[in-house]
Structure to design on (282 residues):
């Protein structure tokens, strides 16, 4: 009898353990499913296990952009040039966390916008601190982004005319009027363009000539200048490179190139292209 009773107890114990394990596995499965549901809901901005939300954040598609400036002088023969200017502004795309609050943007250039996703262009080269602010549930959070705007410029000036012409004139190409410290790198090119014989066919006493002067003006008055190039040449095209590092421009100041010729038979078409790094206000 005792042996039979012990056998029944063993069977009952095994059955109990099997049932307990089954219930335990089921409870663990339910718990894991609950965690998965909570994680999934949390990705949608809700949480079964926590009332906290992700921090407010903002991004920009690219922290650097390049504006373009294109200037063309058109002369129909009356020496009264028409200046055509085109500006092409880089477009920045900004995005902030959309948690249901009011999102406002301050671009640091006097312009603002509202919304979690906005875009903006800056009309001047430089560095800008962009602020994104969220108002939600009585609290306010602000994050900042730094963007840089460089400038690529092109200029096509009217013909330089020889000193013998009644309308003889020099050529002025404005490089920069942007306040701050920056660097400018580019080139100016002159091409033979006139009825006289080409530069490549001239004798040594009649070689083509150009003088390129870098000038600084303040309030319209010349305060500083340096000669970048002052030579004769016997080619129909001459390219003069320039690289102006760490130059400071104050309020009301301008950097410009002045092109002159001493040759009495020269007609040249000047063009220029240069890059201006985003100025730093110090």
């Amino acid at each position: 009898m005792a042996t039979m009773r012990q056998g029944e107890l063993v069977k009952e114990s095994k059955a109990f353990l099997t049932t307990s394990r089954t219930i335990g596995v089921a409870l663990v499965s339910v718990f894991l499913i609950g965690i998965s549901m909570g994680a999934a809901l949390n990705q949608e901005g809700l949480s079964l296990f926590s009332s906290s939300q992700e921090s407010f954040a903002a991004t920009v598609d690219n922290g650097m952009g390049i504006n373009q400036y294109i200037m063309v002088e058109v002369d129909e023969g009356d020496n009264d040039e028409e200046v055509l200017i085109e500006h092409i502004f880089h477009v920045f795309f900004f995005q902030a966390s959309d948690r249901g609050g009011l999102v406002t943007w301050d671009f640091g250039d006097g312009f603002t916008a509202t919304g979690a996703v906005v875009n903006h262009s800056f009309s001047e080269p430089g560095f800008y601190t962009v602020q994104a602010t969220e108002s939600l549930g009585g609290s306010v959070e602000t994050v900042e982004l730094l963007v840089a705007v460089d400038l690529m410029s092109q200029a096509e000036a009217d013909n330089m005319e020889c000193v013998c012409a009644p309308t003889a004139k020099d050529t002025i190409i404005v490089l920069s009027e942007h306040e701050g410290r920056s660097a400018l790198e580019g080139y100016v090119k002159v091409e033979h363009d006139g009825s006289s014989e080409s530069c490549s066919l001239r004798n040594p006493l009649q070689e083509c000539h150009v003088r390129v002067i870098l000038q600084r003006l303040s309030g319209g008055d010349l305060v500083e200048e340096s000669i970048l190039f002052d030579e004769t040449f016997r080619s129909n095209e001459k390219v003069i490179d320039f690289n102006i590092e760490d130059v400071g421009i104050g309020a009301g100041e301008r950097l410009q190139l002045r092109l002159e010729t001493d040759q009495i038979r020269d007609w040249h078409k000047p063009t220029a292209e240069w890059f201006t790094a985003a100025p730093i206000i110090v």
